[in-house]
Amino acid sequence: MKVFVTGASGWIGSAVVRQLLQDGHAVTGLARSDASMRAVEDGGATPLRGDLDDLDSLRGGADAADAVVHLAMKHDWSNVAASFAAERAAVECFGDALAGSGRRLIIAGGLAALAEGRPATEDDRSPFHGPDSPRGGAENFVLDLVDRDVTPIVVRFAPTVHGVGDHGFIATVTAAARRHGVSGYAGDGGNRWAAVHRDDAARLVGLAVADGAAGAILHAVAEEGIPTREIAEAVAAAEGVPARSLPADVLAEQIGPFVGGFFAHVYMAASSEATRAALGWEPRGRGLLDDIAAGAYA
C-alpha cells in the first residue's frame, strides 16, 4: 500500500514509518522544514513538504495514498484554540479527500477524560465534540466518517510512549528531578499512568493499516497504569536524588504547569484487552520502569 503519514519525523511517527516500510508499504511523510525533509528521507520514506495549516499538501498526500496515518499535532499550549482548530481542519480535509473510497484514515487520540477512577476501555467514547473542543473533537468527527465510506480508525496512545530518545512527559519529569534535586509526586502517588514502548506502539499502527476495522478504537497501551509514585521513585534512583511527596502546586511549578498538572491530577490508566483480541497485538518492549532504570532518560 501507499501510506501517507503526518508527523513522520516525530517521536512516534518516525517509528511508525520504519514499521510500515518493514511491512512492505511505500510511505510518504509530511515534512514542515528542511530538517524534517532530511529526517523523512533518511528514514527511507518520500518527503512531502507542508504542515497542518497547508490543506493543499494534506489533500495531495491523501489523494495519492491508499491509507492515511495522521499523527501530527500542533503543541502550541500558548494558543490551544489554534492547535485545536488546526487539528479539526486537517481531519476534515482528510475526510473530504477519502470520502467514497473506503480507504483507511487512522488518527492519533489520547486517554484523558475517558473514565473516572477506573482504566478506560475501547468502549469509552470521547466526550469532546465540535471544533472548539480538545483536539478539535477529531475523534468523534473521524469515527462518523464511516457514513461517508471512509474506514476510520482511532489509535489512542498511552500518555507515555517511552524508549531511548523520548523527549515527552517522562523526559520532562526527569529533567525537573535533575534540576531541583528531588523527584516529586503528588499526595500518595496513587495517580496512575498507562505506558507503551515506542516500538510496540508502531507495530499496532502497522496492524491497523493492514487489518483495522471501520470505526475501530484501539489502545496503544502495554502497561495499564503505573502509579506516579513508582515512576518518581524510578526516576529518583536513576538520577541519584530522593523521591518525595510534594504539594501539587509545588510539583506543577517544578515540572511545569502542563506536564506537572497532568502528573499530579490526571488519571490515565487504560486497558488494551479488546485491542489485543482484535488484532493479535502483544507488546514486546521493555516496561517503563525498566527503561528508566536502564538509562533511557539519562
TrEMBL record:
Residue intervals of the NAD-dependent epimerase/dehydratase domain: 3-214
Pfam families: Epimerase
Protein name: Nucleoside-diphosphate-sugar epimerase
